[in-house]
Design a protein that fits this description.
With about 280 residues, the chain is α/β, with parallel strands linked by helices. It contains 11 helices and 13 strands.
Length: about 280
């Protein structure tokens, strides 16, 4: 048995990381504006997406079936017998269902579908865990068990946004709307539930207090445990750096990195967003 992984661009892994692993392929989600579709991260960048958001209608779409099938074929040619397909939450995108349908037509390879029920680097950590578990020679059931342990026990992902406008426009509001509504300057701390949809964990008055609420939630989860952290941001690098410094002062950090949110997710958050993704080391 020779095992590979296919994921989608919502995992927020760098193109360099993906290129470094011959058993990993990424099918990009699609971004549409000005009447044309573009591959997330590959054919469109952050700056363009944020410029377009308030100028024209910008939408996201599932990866093309052709990109998925090409990834499968390339892995088959490289001798892989089994492929674990790890996608963005089916509660936030049709990607899982699309890949699952396409997988049924793939011959001479065994495809194992895994709905991460999350997104961004929370998904990226799951993909990295799958690659590590494969390198350790684990079986498919053992790998899936590892992924479930990471997703549901050993990690947490919290987001906040300046405005709910973009989540609302994209139909990704989940269970956040009723809790926060349009209260003046109240920002939600959003998480992806075990069912894979957005819900409100807590809230704060103003962005700074909301970021404090996020750090408090991380503290509740991990305490003094050694953790890896990714901070996502839209276009406010200075505030992201400040958040990174505060997290380094507060927590027992193994690794911490700033990663700009992939453009296709930025469509639904807007440029003024922040996320803290943390996992046990």
């Amino acid at each position: 048995m020779k095992i590979a992984v296919i994921t989608d661009s919502s995992c927020n892994l760098s193109l360099d990381y993906i290129a470094q692993h011959n058993n990993l392929k990424m099918a990009p989600l699609m971004i549409s504006f000005d009447g044309e579709f573009h591959r997330d991260l590959i054919e469109v960048d952050y700056k363009t997406v944020y410029q377009k958001l308030d100028q024209t209608k910008v939408t996201s779409s599932i990866p093309s079936r052709e990109d998925f099938e090409q990834a499968v074929e390339e892995l088959k040619k490289a001798g892989f017998t089994d492929i674990i397909v790890i996608t963005i939450s089916s509660g936030l995108s049709g990607t899982y269902n699309s890949f699952n349908t396409a997988a049924k037509d793939c011959k001479d390879v065994t495809i194992h579908m895994y709905d991460s029920k999350t997104l961004s680097m929370a998904l990226g950590y799951i993909v990295k865990k799958a690659i590590t578990s494969i390198e350790e020679g684990k079986s498919i059931p053992r790998i899936i068990a590892d992924l479930n342990q990471l997703r549901y026990e050993d990690s947490t992902a919290l987001f906040t946004v300046e405005t709910l406008k973009y989540l609302r426009q994209g139909g990704r509001i989940g269970k956040v709307e009723g809790t926060i509504g349009d209260l003046l300057n109240v920002k939600p701390v959003i998480f992806v539930s075990d069912e894979g949809v957005y819900e409100t964990k807590s809230k704060g008055f103003g962005m700074n207090r909301t970021l404090i609420s996020m750090r408090n939630e991380i503290k509740k989860k991990f305490g003094t445990e050694l953790i890896d952290v990714t901070i996502h941001y839209g276009n406010n690098t200075e505030k992201a750096e400040n958040l990174k410094a505060k997290i380094q002062q507060t927590f027992n950090i193994n690794t911490i990195e700033l990663v700009q949110l992939t453009p296709v997710l930025g469509i639904h958050t807007g440029p003024n967003m922040f996320a803290i993704i943390a996992k046990r080391t």
